[in-house]
UniProtKB/TrEMBL annotation:
Gene3D superfamilies: FAD/NAD(P)-binding domain
PANTHER family cross-referenced by the UniProt entry: CONDITIONED MEDIUM FACTOR RECEPTOR 1, GERANYLGERANYL DIPHOSPHATE REDUCTASE
Protein name: Geranylgeranyl reductase
Source species: Candidatus Protofrankia californiensis
SUPFAM superfamilies: FAD/NAD(P)-binding domain (SSF51905)
Matches recorded under InterPro entries: FAD/NAD-bd_sf, Geranylgeranyl_reductase
Length: 269
């Protein structure tokens, strides 16, 4: 058996370390699911990630528009990463065959892109996306949660890698400060600051994200957003900055300042 004065848990969505201390998933926070597959494709050297916002439960225009998106990005090694994600803010979340949804979406793409079964380099893989601090507290009894273990996935777009790395850095900084103190109340106070640091960094933005996912869980809202929002370049630039968290924290343009102000004013919970 191993012993340590502190443990930083980066064990992903399984969160076994957190569960050992009875830190369970918050049901009031969004959860996503994503599936992806790699294909040999001439688009392997694409410079940008491509997003498709129209995922239909049935045939396009004949059924519900789902709260999620499909993505395509070139890996640069002859393949593309192609997948889709969806949120649990719709009743279809539990009743969707995601592999079939991926297949039906890919069947509607140009065949010359190569996203066909004969070009697949491996099976479809999938996993849950724990979003917006859906596991808390982030510190308890010498255990700090980072990344998916702490539900630090961006609720706007399902991005988790950057936030895992950033929360790991924040946890490391808190740990260095804590271990510089003598074991006891002083060290514990330093460690108790970790959840506050996370809330200050992401709390307001994730609150906006929770509102967003609730709204797009409504098929009428999702249909209206895609129909009337996509043709408006300024609105789409705003949406891109908001969903991808691409604002300049030092000021930037008017859209940056608006989104940064919204994040500061939103409750950091």
């Amino acid at each position: 058996m191993f012993h340590a004065p502190l443990v930083i848990a980066a064990d992903g969505n399984s969160a076994r370390m957190a569960l050992s201390l009875n830190i369970r998933r918050r049901e009031d926070r969004p959860l996503g699911v994503a599936v992806r597959q790699y294909y040999r494709s001439p688009r392997t050297h694409d410079n940008y990630l491509e997003s498709h916002l129209e995922l239909w439960e049935g045939k396009p225009g004949a059924s519900r528009l789902l709260p999620g998106y499909g993505w395509i990005f070139g890996v640069g090694d002859g393949t593309s990463n192609v997948g889709l994600g969806m949120l649990n803010t719709t009743s279809a979340f539990q009743n969707t065959d995601y592999k079939d949804l991926l297949r039906r979406w890919l069947n509607g793409l140009p065949p010359e892109w190569g996203y066909t079964e004969e070009n697949a380099t491996g099976p479809v893989r999938g996993g849950a996306l724990p979003m917006a601090f859906n596991r808390a507290p982030h510190y308890r009894d010498g255990l700090l949660l980072v990344g998916d273990a702490g539900g630090v996935v961006n609720p706007f777009n399902g991005e988790g890698i950057a936030y895992a790395m950033e929360s790991g850095r924040l946890a490391a900084e808190v740990t260095v400060q804590a271990l510089a103190r003598s074991q006891g109340p002083s060290r514990e106070r330093a460690l108790q600051a970790y959840p506050n640091v996370l809330r200050q960094r992401y709390g307001g933005y994730y609150t906006l994200g929770r509102v967003f996912v609730e709204l797009i869980g409504n098929p009428t809202v999702m249909r209206t957003v895609t129909r009337y929002g996509l043709p408006r370049p300024t609105l789409m630039r705003f949406t891109l900055k908001l969903l991808a968290n691409l604002t300049d924290p030092r000021g930037g343009d008017a859209l940056d300042r608006l989104i940064n102000a919204m994040s500061r004013l939103a409750p950091a919970t």
